[in-house]
Amino acid sequence: MSERSLLIRGANIWTGDRRRPFADALLLSKGRIISVGTANDVSTHPQAKDARELCLEGETVIPGMTDAHLHLMFHARQSTGISLLDTRSIGEALELLKKAAKVANPGDWIHGVRYNDTFWEENRPPTRHELDAAVRDHPLLLTRVCTHIQVANSAALAAAGIPEEDWGDGLLLEKKGDPVIKTMERWRLGSGRELDLAEKACREFARYGVTELHTCSAPEYGALDELSVYQRLRIEGRLPVRVVLYEERMPALNFMSGLGDDWVRYGGFKLFLDGSLGGRTAALSSPYADDPGNRGILNHEWDQLANTVREAHNRGLQMLIHAIGDEALDQAIGAISLAYGDGSCLCALPHRINHVMICRPDQVSKLKDLGVVLDVQPAFVPSEIEMATERLGEERLSWAYPWRTFVDSGLVVTGSSDCPVDPPNPWRGIWGAVCRVNDRGDPRGGWLPEQRLTLAQALELWTVNGALAAGEGGRRGRIAPGFLADLAVLDRDIFQADPMGLKNVEALLTLAGGKITHGEILSDWDRI
Question: Which phi and psi (to 5°) does residue 186 adopt?
Answer without folding.
Answer: -65, -40
